[in-house]
Specification:
The complex is a heterodimer. By secondary structure, chain A is mainly α. Chain A is built from 9 helices and no strands. In chain A, helix 2 (24-42) runs parallel beside helix 6, helix 3 packs antiparallel against helix 8 (163-190) and helix 8 runs antiparallel to helix 9. Chain B has one domain (5-227). Classes of the chains: A mainly alpha, B mainly alpha. Chains A and B meet through helix 7, helix 8 and helix 9 of A and helix 4 and helix 5 of B.
């Protein structure tokens, strides 16, 4: 068990080191998120719609688009020099290979979100002081779920034509249930309500995480093994 | 042994016969809806679309989509190309039926609700199902290698099947505007006999139509696969 976990961490570590050294994907995903926020700012009439009414939607739409952009990276980097064949040949179980890829993806998307959140606060002038712990928990739970699905899908789409377009088409329907609950949780939190008011939403997100992380671990070998 | 493409012909013929029969049945349901069933007191003539809308929705959601999911699971286990062909055919027919639901619904909704579309739970669920099915077909279209196509679409099929209850849970948070079920519910059907009979015939006809379309689509895919195998041999 501990050895299996070490394998997963080694794969995750490799991915994150690669990203830290090149920084291209991280930079582009973050710039993309910032641009989406800016577009949103000009897509509303500030005299008609109050910022706070729109803020939860803006945050989650930005987060979901940026996540899709970020997740495209996971297996495209493995395409170069047939690196993925090397990974498949390594004496690592498929499950742990998935877990490693998943952890790296999760860390990557969470970093993008961590940079997006302050930008969101800055641009949309939202007071997060009371909502922050609840919001961070919601972001973590929602992200953990759709990144699990996204990791499986990104392993599939790199083998197809139009990979960059295919991922959002497949993944967005899977992102909608967690997004619905994330928005439902964020609205009361932004309105200053306590964490106990949003337990139902958090529970749904946790349920989604458990279901799709398990399913992804089980199905991943069907994606990579010929 | 070289694969013989003509092996698919009986399947295609069977599919054609079933489809023609079912289409005649659809016409019969329409005649029944107009001639035999009474005009609904509150909704008037708009209610007639019910006999097409409800059977296609029920067959899409309760037959076609679960069959795709089931065939996907079995495919990952048994690796039988027949299962993959069936799953693909079923998904394609499901998307057509969903499209029927999504077009007949608004036609009814405009006079009755006063709006073409509303984000009601059932409508949203059907819409998502439709997009999932489109995604499934887009994925299939983008992969050349048949074994890989089979595995990937089976994975998506299973994931999609698991997603449906989650979509259901999340979209039903909204207020419901859609009429409640009148037949498939715990208590007795609450329809006058003429309406009930027509609806039940509708269910039967659309089930045969589903089988006919799937058989036809399966046969065409089989012919293509055999042709490719014959060319390769």
């Amino acid at each position: 068990m501990r050895r299996a976990l070490r394998h997963a961490l080694a794969i995750a570590g490799k991915d994150l080191r690669l990203e830290l050294r090149s920084r291209t994907s991280l930079l582009s995903a973050t710039v993309f998120a910032a641009l989406v926020l800016i577009v949103f700012n000009f897509a509303r009439d500030p005299t008609a719609v109050a910022t706070i009414d729109l803020a939860p939607s803006v945050l989650w739409v930005t987060v979901s688009f940026a996540s899709v952009v970020a997740m495209n990276r996971a297996f495209t980097v493995e395409r170069e020099n047939a690196a993925f064949d090397g990974l498949l040949l390594a004496p690592v179980s498929r499950e742990m290979l998935y877990v490693g890829k998943y952890l790296a993806n999760l860390a990557f998307v969470l970093v993008v979100e961590a940079i997006t959140l302050p930008l969101f606060v800055l641009f949309f002038n939202v007071d997060l002081r009371h909502a922050l712990p609840g919001l961070l928990l919601t972001m973590l739970l929602a992200t953990a779920g759709f990144v699990a699905v996204g990791t499986v899908f990104s392993a599939m789409v790199v083998r197809t034509r139009f990979a960059e377009l295919m991922l959002p088409i497949l993944l967005l329907p899977f992102m909608v249930p967690p997004l619905i609950y994330a928005v439902k949780t964020t609205v009361p939190l932004f309105a200053g309500r306590p964490l106990s008011d949003v337990v139902e939403g958090l529970r749904f997100l946790a349920l989604y995480d458990v279901a799709f992380i398990t399913l992804s671990v089980l199905l991943f070998s069907a994606v990579v093994d010929e | 042994m070289t694969p013989d493409p003509s092996r698919a012909h009986p399947v295609i013929t069977r599919g054609m016969v079933l489809t023609v029969l079912a289409l005649a049945g659809v016409a019969a349901v329409m005649v029944l809806a107009v001639q035999y069933t009474p005009v609904e007191a509150n909704q008037g003539l708009a209610q007639k679309i019910f006999y097409i809308h409800v059977p296609s929705a029920v067959v899409a959601i309760w037959v076609a989509v679960p069959m795709t999911g089931l065939a996907s699971m079995l495919y990952l286990w048994l690796h039988d190309p027949r299962l993959d062909r069936f799953a693909a055919a079923s998904a394609e027919v499901a998307s057509v039926f969903c499209l029927v639901v999504l077009t007949t619904g608004p036609i009814w909704g405009k006079p009755i609700w006063g709006t073409w579309w509303t984000w009601d739970g059932r409508l949203t669920l059907t819409l998502f199902l439709f997009f999932l099915l489109l995604g499934y077909q887009t994925l299939r279209a983008a992969i050349r290698e048949p074994l890989e196509r089979g595995r990937f679409s089976a994975v998506l099929g299973i994931m999609g099947l698991v997603l449906i209850p989650f979509i259901h849970l999340s979209v039903y948070l909204w207020r419901g505007l859609h009429p409640k079920p009148v037949v498939l519910k715990p208590s007795e059907p609450s329809l006058p006999p003429a309406m009930l009979h027509t609806l039940l015939i509708g269910f039967g006809v659309f089930t045969v139509l589903y089988i006919g379309f799937v058989t036809l689509r399966y046969g065409i895919q089989l012919a293509q696969d055999l042709r490719e195998a014959a060319d390769a041999a």
